């Protein structure tokens, strides 16, 4: 096995390990994230605004879609 093959194998193993670690971090953090979101999104309006925050819609767009004042949306973000 030459040096490039060895490096390729190491990178593959690292990729697999990182994927496994990522999965464990998601599992271990799920309850904390759920609790945090439940506390932060304590009204139907906040949950709706959160669902619409996709990185593409502006605060103004979300305000029009939800009827929520853009000032509040900005404060919640």
Offer a few descriptive terms:
2 domains; elongated; mainly alpha
How would you characterize this protein structure?
The longest helix is centred in the first third of the chain and has 38 residues, at about 5-40. The protein contains four helices and no strands. The chain has helices at about 5-40, 45-50, 60-65, 70-75. It has about 80 residues and is mainly α. The protein has two domains: about 1-40; about 40-75.
What order do the helices and strands come in, and which of them pair?
Layout: H1 3-40, H2 44-52, H3 59-66, H4 70-76
Taken together, the total number of domains comes to: 2
Give the number of helices. Answer: 4
Number of strands: 0
The helix-and-strand class reads: mainly alpha
Poorly predicted ranges: none
- Beta-sheet strand percentage? under 5%
Mean pLDDT: 94
Spatial separation of the terminal alpha carbons: 53 Å
**Proportion in helices:** over 70%
**Shape summary:** elongated
Major pleated sheet? none
**What is the N-to-C order of secondary-structure elements (H for helix, E for strand)?**
HHHH
Cα gyration radius (Å): 21 Å
Short description:
Helices cover 81% and strands 0% of the residues. The protein is mainly α and 77 residues long.
């Amino acid at each position: 096995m030459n040096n490039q093959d060895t490096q390729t194998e190491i990178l593959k193993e690292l990729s697999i390990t990182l994927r496994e670690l990522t999965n464990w971090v998601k599992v271990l953090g799920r309850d904390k994230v759920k609790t945090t979101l439940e506390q932060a999104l304590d009204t139907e309006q906040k949950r709706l605004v959160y669902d619409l925050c996709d990185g593409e819609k502006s605060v103004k767009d979300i305000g029009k879609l939800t009827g929520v004042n853009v000032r509040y949306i900005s404060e919640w973000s």
